[in-house]
Amino acid sequence: MNYEQIVEARQNADPRGLHTPLGSLVRRKTDAAWQNELQLNAQLKDSVPFACALQHDMEQSRLLHSRQQLTFAIESDDAGPYALQLGKMALTTLEHYLSEHPAELARKGYIDGVLADMAQLSAEAAAHDMLLVCMHPALVMVRQTDGRPLSLLHGSCYAGNAQLMTALYGEVSDSVAPEVMNGETPTAAADTYALAWLAQWLYGSAAMPIGAKGILARALSTEPRRRQPTPQALMKALAERRSTLRSLMAMTAALMIAAAAVWVYVEMVPETTVVEFVKPVENDPMAATLEDTIIIEDLKPGDTVRLSPREQKMLQQYSDKAEAIFRKRFSKEADRILSNIYNRSSMTGDREKFVAGSVAGASELDELEKRLAEEAGITDVRGQKLASEIIDQLTKQKLEKLKESKQD
Fold first, then answer.
1. Could you tell me the pTM of the whole model?
2. Hey, is 140 helix, strand or coil?
3. What is the full DSSP assignment across 308-327?
4. What mean pLDDT is predicted for residues 96-117?
């Protein structure tokens, strides 16, 4: 939804109440106080399975103690439930809130904050064997005072019945994982899908961060096994991608500064005899693979692993070997890449081609670091640190050789 669509939705708002896929959200004055009431639509009021699932959802929701969890009371008559009482705080939907405050989308950290809150709500619900299933902005409630999202219904309480899921989410079925709409039992991957859909909707109203598109495309896969397993894993992937891009930009900037400095030096020093020689890294065989393995049996989520001094020593040895393998392989490839940048031929040629080659080299080094770190079994953060040390060392060596060859 872009800015024009948000304004149009605001102009077409229903004066009798705020429309949601569940019914109309209205404010009613009772006992000298204003109350929020969600008046259910006729399709839900006449559904016996919905009435039973709604009662279960209400009971389970009261077990959650998060400030972001809305508790509700069911208003019923002889025909069944007809409304939900949502308390006194000023409530609206996320969709309506953004139509009233479109500038919020441009506020730094707002979108990330909404997604982080929804991921946290999903985790708290999962701890009580519940899932949100749907995070469509027309169903996500927010406080009008600060726009913070609140959890209302938990879609997993209604799952397993395709007809009931259609009655609940038929208007917004594209925001619910396909397997859930087909009546299958939802898993945490269903909440991953729902969060990714919300992220795509929010970023559709603003600028999507570089690299987020591919991550969200995976999370929106029609096959649950291809998605990130949980909303928290999705948020981690987005954060890591953002961190990687910052590292690449910093590396590119450093290479361009170094390139500019060397360019100035080469241009100012008179040229004598050109000697082009770059000593390659020796092609030693790769370090031996790890032979010893620590096996931990019957490990369950949440268990604490305590290693003996001997096992800790073995793990340290594994880590040292893994880093040694990474250093040797990265040094060899980085030497090749940097040799294409810092040599007499490229540095005395066209300046724009030299800068372009520096940027391309930085990108190639970044991809190389990721691949070799994964193959060596070390973390991307540790790999970046080792790669920076190696690049700095090789760059200094090549600049010194260029100076020596210039003087000769």
1. 0.58
2. coil
3. -HHHHHHHHHHHHHHHHHHH
4. 88
Mean pLDDT of 307-319: 79
Of 47-61, 294-308, 332-346, the range with the highest mean pLDDT is: 47-61
Token digits of residue 147:
């726009």
Contact 239, 321 (CB under 8 A): no
Alpha helices in 269-379 (DSSP H): 309-339, 344-347, 351-376
pLDDT in tens, 37-94: 999 998 898 889 999 999 999 998 888 877 788 888 999 888 889 899 988 888 999 9
- Spatial strand order of the sheet with 18-20 comes to 18-20, 23-30, 33-40, 80-85, 73-77
The Cα–Cα gap between 22 and 20 comes to 5
Provide the pLDDT for residue 161: 87
Which pLDDT tens digit goes with each residue over 177-211? Answer: 999 999 899 999 999 999 999 999 998 855 677 77
Q: Which residues fall within 8 angstroms of residue 95, CB to CB, at 6 or more apart?
A: 9, 136, 137, 138, 140
Rg (CA), the chain: 29
> Going along 41-168, which residue ranges are E strands?
73-77, 80-85, 91-93, 141-143, 149-150
Q: Is 108 helix (H, G, I), strand (E, B) or coil?
A: coil
Quick one: average pLDDT of 380-392?
87
Phi, psi of 30 (to 5 degrees): -135, 135
Cα–Cα distance measured from residue 228 to residue 216, given in angstroms and rounded to the nearest whole number:
10
What is the three-class DSSP state of 18?
strand
User: What DSSP state is assigned to residue 22?
Assistant: T
